[in-house]
Design a protein that fits this description.
Blueprint (H helix, E strand, L loop, with lengths): L11 H22 L13 H50 L12 H17 L2 E2 L2 E2 L14 H6 L7 H13 L7 E4 L5 E6 L9 E7 L5 E6 L4 E5 L10 E7 L5 E9 L8 E3 L8 H37 L3 E5 L36 E4 L2 E6 L7 E3 L4 H12 L6 E3 L2 E6 L7 E3 L2 H6 L14 E3 L10 E3 L22 E5 L2 E4 L7 H15 L9 H15 L9 H37 L3 H26 L3 H4 L1
Parallel strand pairs: 9-10, 13-14
Antiparallel strand pairs: 1-2, 3-4, 4-7, 5-8, 6-7, 8-9, 11-16, 12-13, 12-17, 15-16, 18-19, 20-21
């Protein structure tokens, strides 16, 4: 009988010792790294939660980077917007100042300041964040606004605002400097004033006439072109009798001339002399009235009209608002006359209505919204066939949302819109639409910039599209939709923010326009009406820079951006909490507790020592000792 030797390495005891050693090695690694394992297979059953948690943490890190970048853009934009409000305050304070001392260039100190601030505003609007222009909408790689010098003075091939301003002033004043009005005396005892052309957008428009002149007959305003007349009928008015004429200016404001009959010597300002010869000669009084009216019209034309013309030139150059102008045929009344706002949309001769007119079942579609004609009882987007043209225009204005109401004047219908690119008017009854003066469909608005349509400007009667020959001041994206939506970012799994901005937004454009008008306009330093021109312009610029309820303000843009920042702040707070929770899940799944590991190491070390002791004893065992 033979006894095989004990092979330690292959014995059960040796295997256990190796296992203990491996466990000690693993525990030592856990103690030094803090991790349960260096590979996924050793992490245990909860590692799936840790993997998902780590993916969510990666998403949160990406959102955090996005929030940081968007906040940088918003902070820069907000700084720029705050600079714009400072510029507005500076120019508004200057324009409200009553001092009208003119320098050799025919400008006030406040106007010089405005010119400098215009350049500053252009610089602010071209603010960049990295290589991104903040006020260009989606066109982030395009400079938002043309250079200030090009906007005002033009380039070698395109006219700037200064040229547009001069053309418009010449067109509104007319060759005789009387606001395109023609003044005559049809008879020795009468006076007549008329506009020089029907449907012309230029000059003074006769709005209303009233009289308390004893024995006088006032006719109009009516006709095409619009006119009115005053016939004294061979009777002298009494002291204090008055003639009042109201005019509408190109910017929509109204001014009234009041002339009072007076026997005082010298004749007071704003009066006309009653003939005092013996015997009394009312023909002389009519001549005095004509002279006084001529003087008053020239003063109005060369002061308020010039200022209003400058404001409208700003609209023509800067504003995306435009209009479609129709020249209707006469109505079908017994005595045909130009249509007015009261003219009906349908009727049987000899009523005051258009012909052909609309009938029940017809429709007019404005920017995709349909207005339907019914016999009576119209509600919502319906019109009665007997409603007036003004009712139709009011319905159209509600759809387009224009800031400037559409009008009927001198037989011409003007549909105004704040977005020339979007205006589209069609009708199922093209004949009736033609009766309104719109012979072709769809009816669209001319895209600005608008220029005086012919030369010399003093006799022009139309505005035309000047896009090809005029500097385009705004160069960024000007497509449909909210400017804020031109820049969007996802900042959480289900949260996006909008933070885009465009330099042609109403609040920004109106401010830039007003400052450009004020800083560019100049007059003769010694002209008879120069002080009145600057005073009238200063008043209008101050009003333009004072926002009315319902108008967008720069502060509104800042509020929109602040809301986006608040949304990101809330998302960041949620993500911070989620990040802590996810890290806890990962730690629980993957981390080794130091106290527990140390305890296990101590236990294994004791077991290993005991195993070594047993092994040592066994190694000394022999048959003699065994027996």
């Amino acid at each position: 009988m033979s006894i095989s030797s004990i092979n330690y390495s292959s014995s059960v005891l040796g295997s256990q010792i190796r296992n203990i050693n491996q466990q000690l090695t693993d525990l030592s690694t856990q103690l030094s790294t803090g991790k349960l394992s260096q590979n996924y297979s050793g992490m245990g059953t909860n590692e799936g939660f840790a993997i998902a948690g780590r993916s969510q943490l990666s998403n949160i890190a990406a959102y955090t980077d996005t929030i940081t970048n968007v906040n940088v853009n918003i902070n820069l934009a907000n700084t720029a917007l705050q600079a714009l409000t400072t510029i507005r305050s500076t120019v508004q304070t200057g324009s409200a100042n009553t001092a009208q001392d003119l320098n050799v260039n025919g400008q006030t100190i406040a106007q010089n300041t405005a010119a400098a601030q215009f350049g500053s505003m252009v610089g602010v609007l071209n603010t960049q964040s990295g290589n991104r222009y903040l006020f260009s909408g989606t066109a982030v790689n395009t400079q938002s606004v043309a250079d200030a010098g090009d906007i005002i003075n033009g380039t070698t091939t395109q006219a700037g605002f200064k040229t547009v301003l001069a053309e418009r002033q010449a067109a509104d004043l007319g060759a005789n400097g009387k606001g395109r009005l023609v003044q005559t005396q049809p008879t020795p005892s009468s006076v007549q004033v008329s506009e020089d052309a029907p449907g012309s957008p230029f000059g003074l428009k006769i709005s209303a006439v009233s009289s308390t002149l004893t024995g006088a007959t006032v006719t109009g305003p009516s006709g095409s072109p619009v006119s009115f007349s005053v016939d004294l009928n061979g009777v002298n008015p009494n002291n204090g009798d008055k003639l009042s004429v109201k005019f509408t200016l190109p910017d929509g404001t109204t001014e009234q001339i009041d002339l009072t009959a007076s026997s005082a010597t010298p004749t007071p300002l704003g009066s006309f002399a009653i003939d005092a010869s013996v015997p009394v000669n009312p023909t002389n009084t009519a001549t005095n009235l004509n002279t006084a009216l001529d003087t008053a019209i020239k003063k109005l034309a060369n002061t308020s009209l010039v200022a209003a013309s400058a404001i409208v030139a700003g609209d023509n150059f800067f504003n995306t608002a435009s209009s479609a102008i129709g020249t209707p045929v006469n109505n079908q009344a017994a005595t045909p006359a130009p249509v007015t706002g009261a003219t009906a949309l349908s009727g049987t001769s000899p009523s005051d209505s258009i012909s052909p007119g609309f009938v029940a079942g017809d429709s007019i579609t404005v920017n995709g919204t349909t207005l339907s004609f019914v016999s009576s009882g119209a509600t919502g987007n319906q019109l009665n066939v007997g409603d007036s043209i003004q009712t139709l225009l009011s319905k159209i204005d509600q759809i387009t949302g224009t800031s400037k109401p559409s009008t009927v004047h001198g037989g011409s219908i003007t549909i105004n819109t704040d977005d020339a690119a979007s205006l589209n008017v069609t009708s199922s009854n093209t004949g009736a639409l033609g009766s309104l003066g719109f012979g072709s469909t769809p009816v669209t608005a001319t895209q600005p910039p608008l220029r005086v349509g012919s030369s010399p400007a003093s006799s022009a009667t139309t505005l035309v599209n000047g896009s090809a020959t005029t500097v385009k001041w705004y160069q960024g994206n000007d497509g449909p939709g909210s400017p804020r939506s031109t820049a969007m970012a996802r900042v959480d799994d289900s949260v996006t923010v909008q933070y885009g901005a465009q330099a042609d937004e109403d609040a920004i454009r109106q401010q830039l326009q007003a400052i450009a008008v004020f800083g560019t306009f100049s007059t003769s330093p010694t002209g008879q009406y120069s002080g009145g021109q600057v005073a009238a312009l200063s008043l209008r610029v101050t009003q333009s820079l004072t926002k009315q309820p319902g108008q967008q303000r720069i502060e509104d843009i800042q509020t929109d951006l602040a809301m986006s920042q608040n949304t990101m702040k809330d998302a960041s707070s949620r993500q911070t909490q989620a990040k802590a929770q996810l890290q806890t899940i990962i730690d629980q799944a993957e981390s080794a507790a130091p106290d527990q590991v140390a305890s296990e190491i101590l236990s294994l070390q004791n077991a290993l020592q005991a195993s070594y002791q047993v092994t040592s004893n066994l190694s000394q065992l022999s048959l003699v000792k065994f027996l």
